[in-house]
Specification:
With 313 residues, this protein is α+β, with helices and mostly antiparallel strands. The chain has helices at residues 12-19, 67-72, 86-93, 184-187, 190-210, 216-227, 233-240, 244-256, 271-291, 297-312; strands at 24-25, 27-32, 38-43, 47-50, 55-61, 75-80, 106-107, 113-114, 120-132, 135-147, 154-156, 159-161, 260-263, 266-269. The protein has ten helices and 14 strands. Strand 4 (47-50) and strand 5 (55-61) form a beta hairpin. The structure holds flavin mononucleotide. The site of flavin mononucleotide has 17 residues, from strand 3, strand 5 and helix 3.
Length: 313
């Protein structure tokens, strides 16, 4: 969906949703006031700024309770959250009397709390405060940092997310990740073999899907609605293995192309949508047939049975 608006017409909800397309990491920014009060705020506005001098930035709502402390503090710390720190993120995004009660932390430079278990941490001297509308932009000069390299927590379209490699960066059909990928413990471990097999399957499938002018989520929506007509978005998303924001964007694209419409009881395929879904099924079945062409029916049945059993465990 393309929405072009003049400034006066900007609808805050639509603006926020459009901004949500920019996936970010999640940080908790902390500082200590001269009277010893500690503050911590979940923030996704963190970004790198300069290598020389080493600067980073983030922005705080001017109305945030903690903002006055950040305005006065000589130092602040940026704690980049790891993928298993979602609870910490929610905790520091909620206003409460003492956010640090029961939370494990060390005292960093200038007394700013730094947390264990993060993906990375930057300890900064306050460098500059810039006016950014209803936010203050805080620039910090990095004086110390930790790089723990843990998988990061991400945020996209109002939901938490994690990083997975884009299939385009993975091996091309016929190639493998590494010539020795079949060797050693990983090369023979069922889990890694399953992962690699799924990726190889998808790598060969995506280009075929593009011939129908659909991305993976749009194609899945058509297939699901072909089987289960009249679902609302919450029901649909369960079958899509994706986030609600992506499902919403895909539904909007399919709506613009008159493939899907909203009926009284939920989303349904239009006549054109039915025809497209039939094409998707043919493509999916042809791809499966091609992939399993060199296996006997007995082998395929056993493989399918094993997958079903694994899902039941
Ligand atoms: C994922 C996420 C990212 C956020 N990013 C920011 C941000 O960059 N700047 C900001 O001012 N608030 C941000 N917030 C909201 C604050 O964390 C929230 O308003 C918090 O209550 C402020 O704390 P305080 O009221 O103690 O100052 C974010 C919240 C979440 C869940």
């Amino acid at each position: 969906m393309t929405t072009m608006m003049k400034q006066a017409e900007i609808d805050p909800k639509a603006f926020r949703r459009a901004l949500g397309n920019f996936a970010t990491g999640v940080t908790i920014i902390t500082a200590r006031a001269p009277d010893g009060t500690t503050v911590g705020v979940t923030a996704s506005s963190f970004n790198s700024l300069s290598m020389d001098p080493p600067l980073i930035l983030w922005s705080s709502m001017k109305t945030a309770r903690s903002c006055a402390v950040f305005e006065e503090a000589t130092h602040f710390a940026v704690n980049i959250l790891a993928s298993d720190q979602m609870e910490m993120s929610n905790h520091f995004a909620r206003q409460q009397e003492d956010k640090f009660a029961g939370i494990e932390f060390d005292e960093g430079i200038g007394g700013a709390p730094i947390f264990p278990g993060c993906a990375g941490r930057f300890q900064c001297e306050a460098y500059e405060k810039l006016d950014g509308g209803d936010h203050w932009i805080f620039v910090g000069r990095v004086v110390a940092f930790d790089d723990f390299g843990r998988a990061p927590l991400c945020f996209h379209q109002g939901s938490y997310a994690m990083v997975f490699n884009h299939p385009g960066t993975l091996s091309k059909p016929g190639e493998d990740v590494h010539p020795d990928a079949d060797q050693g413990r990983m090369g023979n471990h069922a889990f890694f073999l399953m992962l690699r097999a799924v990726r190889a399957y998808q790598d060969r499938y995506y280009p075929k899907l593009e011939t129908l002018g659909l991305n993976l989520i749009e194609a899945r929506i058509l297939l699901v609605l072909n089987d289960l007509s009249g679902l609302d978005i919450e029901e649909l998303v369960v079958h899509l293995h994706t986030q609600i924001g992506e499902a919403r964007a895909a539904l909007s694209n399919l709506g613009d192309r008159d493939l899907v419409m909203r009926g009284d009881g939920g989303y349904v395929l239009t006549e054109e949508g039915q025809a497209k879904a039939t094409q998707c099924w043919s493509l999916a079945e042809a791809h499966a047939d091609e992939t399993f062409a060199n296996f006997s029916q007995d082998q395929v049945d056993t493989f399918t049975d094993v997958l079903r059993q694994l899902l039941k465990q």
